[in-house]
């Protein structure tokens, strides 16, 4: 894999870090067509609890209004995969993903909702919204 780009074919490499995933998200973006809103639903999201090291499972919904660029779905899969070994609270995940999407494509608006599956009988949902001119 060349630095901060995904291979055009073959198996996808494992992310080295969330920072690498963020750069790939930016570099793989493409020119936006004439669409008003785009929504991704990532149904198999995994992160790690920073206190216990146990996996947290859930899903992530990303809705954005494109400006000049759109997110390429393969790069989004890579980026979200990078959290698999990242210790983070659900609340910080929503904020970081919203900030990273903003960094990558500078959308007019992005809304990220993280739905954490129940662990210990508690489910958690967090939302982060970023609006840009």
What does this structure look like?
The model has no long low-confidence stretch (mean pLDDT 91). The protein has helices spanning 18-27, 73-81, 90-105, and strands at residues 30-31, 38-48, 55-65, 69-70, 109-119, 122-131. The strands form two sheets. It has a four-stranded antiparallel beta sheet. The protein is α+β, with helices and mostly antiparallel strands and 133 residues long. A hairpin with a 2-residue loop joins strand 5 and strand 6. The protein contains three helices and six strands; from the N terminus they run H-E-E-E-E-H-H-E-E. Helix 1 (18-27) packs antiparallel against helix 2 (73-81) and helix 1 (18-27) packs parallel to helix 3.
The profile of the biggest β sheet is: 4 strands, antiparallel
Low-confidence stretches: none
> Looking across the biggest beta sheet, what order are the strands in?
2-3-5-6
Helix content: 25-40%
Q: What's the short story on this structure?
A:
This protein has 133 residues and is α+β, with helices and mostly antiparallel strands. The protein is built from three helices and six strands. The strands form two sheets. A four-stranded antiparallel beta sheet has the order 2-3-5-6. A two-stranded antiparallel sheet has the order 1-4.
Tell me the layout of helices and strands.
Blueprint: H1 18-27, E1 30-31, E2 38-48, E3 55-65, E4 69-70, H2 73-81, H3 90-105, E5 109-119, E6 122-131
Antiparallel strand pairs: 1-4, 2-3, 3-5, 5-6
């Amino acid at each position: 894999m060349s630095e901060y780009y995904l291979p055009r074919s073959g198996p996808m490499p494992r992310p080295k870090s969330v920072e690498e995933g963020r750069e790939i998200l930016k570099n793989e973006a493409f020119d936006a067509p004439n669409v008003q809103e785009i929504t991704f639903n990532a149904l198999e999201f995994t992160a790690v609890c920073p206190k216990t090291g146990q996996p947290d499972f859930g899903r992530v919904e990303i809705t954005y209004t494109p400006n000049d660029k759109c997110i390429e779905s393969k790069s989004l899969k890579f980026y979200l995969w990078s959290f698999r070994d990242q210790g983070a609270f659900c609340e910080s995940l929503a904020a970081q993903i919203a900030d990273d999407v903003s960094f990558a494509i500078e959308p007019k608006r992005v809304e990220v909702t993280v739905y954490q599956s129940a662990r210990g009988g508690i489910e958690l949902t967090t939302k982060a919204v970023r609006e840009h001119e």
